[in-house]
Design a protein that fits this description.
Blueprint lengths: L3 H15 L9 H7 L3 E6 L6 H12 L9 E6 L6 H9 L7 E4 L4 H6 L13 E5 L5 E6 L15 E4 L5 H13 L3 E4 L5 H10 L4 E5 H7 L1 H5 L3 E7 L5 H5 L20 H12 L7 E4 L5 H14 L3 H9 L7 E2 H12 L3 H10 L11
Helix pairs in contact: 11-15
């Protein structure tokens, strides 16, 4: 999904079939609980990025659909690709439905792969919904002379990383599976500073969600200073396809795949890693949250994404929507947790960045 027409037609079809979802005659106890309370959204990413801006928009609208009409505020808690914020919500914050995690899309997969750091079980968290699917893109500054994605296999490009997320996972996998020659520069707090570093000539490239990229790079794209070179997505994104940006799967060919992998293995590893973009703006609460409040919050998200005022702001802010309900998101993550451990372990290893200097060909 990349356009408003897709979301609006889907929302309309859902409304016709199910009727517009509004909070049902809620348990008076839930309304009494939330009345005069404030819900906190913990954003597991840096200020000014897409996760932050989506969460702020949720905070402006969700309370109208929660019984008792609580206020909402956001708090930035970046670190470790969203793991710091997720750990806080799952282990430290109140577990009564007054603290919501605004997770980075890789947060479930990081835990399921057994990486060090997560202190939560993704399948046990109560997922409330995701506002958007997030195809991603990798882009390179045109001052490098780049003409096509094929050049990443031939020469080195310095790429900025903000943690174990899209900015670092995709360059790692491109190096480790396809023999790309990215040089990863870590430590940026969020993607806006990465774009500043590219403009200054300190970096050459970035991988991130398309929605955030086209906003943060709107000026540099208009001036022809940065070139999107590949779609990191399971299906072609209409906007990127219109710009003639090729799909990553177009490059999973014998001439690029490292000899230790088959073509089928390479495709399977990229498919698993990219699949997290299907639910690219997810929200959750701790496992101990009372189920009646989980249900109320899920119903509030369902109602919010069909609300005309919310839709108008999303359109004005150019926040793309491709909603996945809490129930559907829960099933996706539970199913993902059933992936064979050996495959998870392999993908986890391939997501670890290795310098192109250690090329094993």
């Amino acid at each position: 999904m990349t356009g408003w027409s897709n979301f609006r037609s889907g929302a309309l079809a859902g409304a016709i079939y199910f009727g517009f979802i509004v909070p049902s005659q809620a348990d008076p106890e839930i309304a009494r609980f939330y009345e005069s309370k404030t819900i906190q959204i913990i954003v597991g990413a840096g200020a000014g990025g897409g996760y932050d801006l989506y969460a702020r928009m949720v905070a402006r609208h969700l309370g109208r659909f929660v019984p008792g009409h609580p206020g909402l505020i956001t708090q930035i808690m970046p670190g470790a690709g969203g793991v710091v914020g997720a750990n806080y919500v799952a282990n430290v914050a109140a577990k009564d439905g007054t603290v919501i995690g605004g997770a980075q899309r890789e947060v479930p997969l990081i835990q399921l792969m057994g990486q060090k750091g997560p202190r939560y079980e993704s399948a046990r968290l109560h997922w409330l919904g995701s506002l958007a699917s997030e195809p991603s893109v990798c882009a390179v500054a045109t001052r490098t002379g780049v003409q096509s994605f094929s050049e990443v296999f031939q020469r080195e490009f310095a790429i900025g990383g903000t943690g174990p997320n899209t900015t670092e996972i995709y360059p790692a996998m491109l190096n480790n599976i396809l023999g790309a020659r990215f040089k990863l520069i870590k430590g940026y707090p969020s993607t806006p500073p990465v774009h500043v570093a590219i403009e200054r000539g300190e970096l050459d490239a970035i991988c991130q969600s398309w929605a955030s990229f086209k906003e943060q790079a709107s000026a540099t794209m208009a001036k022809g200073e940065i070139k999107p070179v590949v779609q990191m997505a399971l299906r072609p994104d209409p906007e990127m396809t219109k710009l003639n940006i090729p799909m990553i799967f177009d490059f999973i060919k014998a001439e690029h795949v490292r000899p230790e992998f088959t073509l089928e293995q390479a495709k399977a590893y990229f498919t698993l890693a990219i699949s997290t973009g299907f639910a690219g703006r997810p929200y959750f609460v701790a496992p101990e949250t009372p189920l009646a409040r989980v249900k109320a919050l899920r119903e509030a998200f369902d109602a919010m994404v069909k609300d005309a005022v919310f839709l108008a702001e999303a359109e004005k802010q150019k926040r793309e929507l491709d909603y996945v309900s809490g129930e559907d998101l829960q099933k996706i993550i539970v199913d993902l947790a059933a992936t064979p451990p050996e495959m998870m372990a392999k993908v986890e290893d391939l997501m670890q960045f290795r310098s192109p200097a250690n090329d094993r060909r």
